[in-house]
Amino acid sequence: MMKKSLILAAGVGLWVPFSLSTVMAAPMPAKIIDIYSGGFKDDYPQALVRVRSYVLSVQSDIATLYGLQYGQGFLHPVTIRFDDGAPAVSENPYFYVQTKGSGSTFQQELIVNVEAYAKRRQDWSTNESTLRGGFRYALSEVMLNDIAAGDSDKALPLWVQEGLSVYASGNGEAFVQALSERVRRSKVGDLVGELNRPSPYLVTKDWALYYLAVKYIASTGGLQAFVRSMTSGKSGADTLRDVLSQEWPVFEDHVHASALQALAGYAMSDEDEGQSSSGSHSGH
């Protein structure tokens, strides 16, 4: 069966690193494959309508957030298709990204998990921000991947890539809360690790810390300059030195301090924990 496709493009200019600008072909709009053969056909039309409504506005919003004139498609092919299921490790259950090839053969798929939509069909009104946030995360990943084009030398550090995408999603505080709300305030320091030492598989702790690092950068007013510098190929250390006037150890100290403060805001107080324990003993 032939697959029909819908061509989508945003109405803003396209920013690319100078090293690519002289050889780049015309930007390619994303394709939405509007054929679905999964097991939730009653929910698929609504998922399709939502994704159509997200693409143009979200790409423009993220470009503005990052300070990139990035729109009217992508440097490399991007396909949006609908399927059931998602990887075991995923920032959200609704959308995920797969990449293939590198350089001139680089391409990406943004997969919409219709099964996840179906399981939450009773909560459309309360989950709209979560759904849109999940798409913002995925499209940020697509945009950042598109610039690197599968080249490991151009790829952003994991904490930058994931931190930016969670920050763009608008759901970062949910990760911070989920990480610390069951932890006593005096123990939140155990939750803060090093940015360049991720877990073997990304977990809530990683996404929360990476988000808080990017949030700290944004609080300095330097987020857009940081993104432009990193996507142009500069190292993280050089970028932090140029944009924030901070060496890496100083930057990590600031992130650590701001992360402790953010996590403590959601953590259980030590006093409440002690009172709870005393109450449970006195009842025996």
List the helices and strands and how they pair.
Elements: E1 5-8, H1 18-21, E2 30-33, H2 44-66, E3 78-83, E4 95-100, E5 107-113, H3 114-119, H4 124-148, H5 158-169, H6 172-180, H7 204-219, H8 223-231, H9 236-243, H10 248-266, H11 270-282
Parallel strand pairs: 2-3, 3-5
Antiparallel strand pairs: 1-2, 4-5
Helix pairs in contact: 2-4, 4-5, 5-7, 6-7, 6-10, 7-10, 8-9
Notable characteristics:
2 domains, disordered C terminus, single chain, 5 strands, five-stranded mixed sheet, 284 residues, 10% strand, alpha/beta
Q: If you average the pLDDT, what whole number results?
A: 86
Specify the number of helices. Answer: 11
Count of separate structural domains: 2
End-to-end distance: 69 Å
**Unreliable residue stretches:** 1-24, 276-284
Helix content, binned percent: 40-55%
Count of DSSP E strands?
Answer: 5
Order of helices and strands: EHEHEEEHHHHHHHHH
Radius of gyration: 21 Å
Placed side by side, the strands forming the largest sheet appear as: 1-2-3-5-4
Shape: globular
Class computed from helices, strands and strand pairing: alpha/beta
Oligomeric state of shown chains? single chain
Amount of beta strand: 5-15%
How would a textbook summarize the main sheet? 5 strands, mixed
